What does this fold into?
Amino acid sequence: MTRRPGFPAQLGPSQAKPQQPQRAVSARTGVSSVTPLRPQGVGLDSEAVRTRMVTRLAGQGVADPRVLGALGRVERHRFVDSALVNQAYEDTSLPIGLGQTISKPSVVARMVELLLGTTPGGARLGRVLEIGTGCGYQAAVLAQVATEVYSIERLRGLHDRARENLRPLRLANVHLLFGDGMEGFAKGAPYAGIIAAAGGEAVPRAWVDQLAVGGRIIAPTVVPGGRQSLMLLEKTATEVRRSILETVHFVPLKSGIA
Ligand code: SAH
It folds into this structure.
């Protein structure tokens, strides 16, 4: 029998109502940030399960404190269907509707860690482009580690759902776009990082063109032999270095909008 985290004990509709966010002013920067309020009665529980998830990720080798901090802060249960909240902090991908899935936390952590690369510890990455907003979870994670996040989705239904999911978090640095991410998003370029949540046959030329020198692309891509692997591209002043990393299973990158 698999052990399910004991969360949430109960997440009734009345408890899940959006509440006024708390404003917090950082002592270090003096910058006002928003701490989203959790549904009453489950807040502490969800924090405890999230902490356990982060501890597991650290045990699996995720070392960057920025990534662990981000996954510890973003409430993944807010992004999945209410029937699936019990599984929100397990290391599993989950359906988000329209045949698409939210990636497992370990894959999100690994990809964001690769995206950050050798950016000096503690520093934020600059502008990031995400292809495949889905439910918006990874965009919220990216918002914790990058200055600006442009996230593009080709399915109108999911684009709208992500907007709903992200609204209560009030992340001013996330910009949701509806369109075909194969073409990137030239208006936001150049990007310090580009991350794809859907796997293609090749990394589109537009992404490489829109990447800043010194930037990284991390994208699931079909590699020789037919398997899908994480592909890391690093752009220098003179070349684009490509590395093929571990095998992954992402939904397909598709052209056009729907
Ligand atoms: N990062 C997402 C994962 C979503 S799954 C999350 O946290 O939920 C991948 C998404 O990529 C799907 O929603 C799919 O519709 C989208 N997608 C596939 N091809 C795309 C394209 N060309 N442009 C934009 N989005 C695309």
Summary: The chain has a mean pLDDT of 88. Residues 96, 100-103, 131-132, 134-135, 137-138, 152-155, 158, 180-182, 197-198, 251, 253-254 surround S-adenosyl-L-homocysteine (CB under 6 Å). Residues 22-34+96-247 form a domain with the Rossmann fold fold (CATH 3.40.50.150). The first strand starts at residue 22 and ends at 25.
